[in-house]
Amino acid sequence: MPSEKSVGIILFSVKGAKPEFLILHYRAGHWSLPKGHAEKGEGERQTALRELKEETGISGGQIEFAEGFREGITYSFKKGDATVHKTAVFFLGRLKNPSDAANVKLSSEHQGFEWLPLRQAEKRLTYQTDREVVGKAADAIEGATFS
């Protein structure tokens, strides 16, 4: 069975006292998190930052990572006649300046985005694996060290 790996960032901004998570509406119709495939020679964090920039216009200088947060999910999907096994690794990032949340510039892969509190984000996300990893991220926010 073919396999793929993607890397992404669960990005949040603080609005009031509560985190709001960035979710993307893909042209294929589903709601998910910013992620993509590594390019040759890239590390996971490099991939996550490049994909975030390509998909949202948000650069690495605008965010800070939660130290020690690295969560993976696995799932399978059909690609032609083949079933592909996919692993996606996510880091947790926070916007340094909450006003940057208004400056998302979507790539052509996407048709929309929303910043949502946890429960609303979980309802909007299409896939259970995404809902689970966002829940883990939300649990990690309190007490996390960001750098």
List the helices and strands and how they pair.
Elements: E1 3-15, E2 18-26, E3 31-32, E4 35-36, H1 44-56, E5 63-79, E6 82-95, E7 110-116, H2 118-124, H3 128-141
Summarize the entry for a quick read.
The chain is of the alpha+beta class. Helix content is 23%, strand content 44%.
The CA-CA distance between the termini, in Å, is 38 Å
Describe the biggest sheet?
Answer: 7 strands, mixed
* Elements, N to C (H/E): EEEEHEEEHH
User: Looking at CATH, which topology would you report?
Assistant: Nucleoside Triphosphate Pyrophosphohydrolase
- The CATH H-level superfamily is Nucleoside Triphosphate Pyrophosphohydrolase
CATH architecture: Alpha-Beta Complex
Shape estimate: globular
Low-confidence segments: none
Provide a count of the helices. Answer: 3
Number of strands: 7
Summed up, the domain count is 1
The CATH class, by name, is Alpha Beta
> On the 0-100 scale, what is the average pLDDT?
95
How much of the polypeptide forms β-strand, as a percent range?
A: 35-45%
Q: Write down the Rg.
A: 15 Å
Category from helices, strands and their pairing: alpha+beta
**Helix amount:** 10-25%
Overview of the structural elements:
The chain contains three helices and seven strands; from the N terminus they run E-E-E-E-H-E-E-E-H-H. By secondary structure, it is of the alpha+beta class. The protein has a single domain, classed as Alpha-Beta Complex (Nucleoside Triphosphate Pyrophosphohydrolase). Strands 1, 2, 3, 4, 5, 6 and 7 form a seven-stranded mixed β-sheet that branches. A hairpin with a 2-residue loop joins strand 1 (3-15) and strand 2 (18-26). The mean pLDDT is 95.
